[in-house]
Design brief:
This protein is mostly beta strands. It has no helices and four strands. A hairpin with a 2-residue loop joins strand 1 and strand 2.
């Protein structure tokens, strides 16, 4: 059965809540014969804080490297992105 993460020591009860560290690597290669669709490698790390049973904060940093994209009119390059979110569940 799926259910929400419930911290053992909730922040509103004087505890630290629950912490979650996550990471991901993804890769795509769109090169195929004469079709030069490019390549992309992405790295993501994130930190989630479950303050209470119904409140969490999420932070995420992503780095993406795009290469060999000349065939589709695109440009090679890098992307750095940072995001913050808050979520309330009831």
């Amino acid at each position: 059965m799926f259910d929400r993460t419930k911290p053992a020591n909730s922040f509103n009860a004087g505890g630290a809540g629950a912490w979650e560290v996550r990471g991901r690597v993804d890769r795509i290669d769109l090169q195929d014969g004469d079709f030069a669709g490019g390549k992309q490698v992405g790295y993501t790390v994130g930190l989630n804080w479950y303050a209470t049973n119904y409140l969490r904060f999420l932070g995420e940093y992503s780095f993406v490297d795009v290469s060999d994209s000349g065939g589709v009119g695109g440009q090679d390059g890098e992307v750095n992105a940072f995001s913050l979110r808050a979520q309330i569940d009831w």
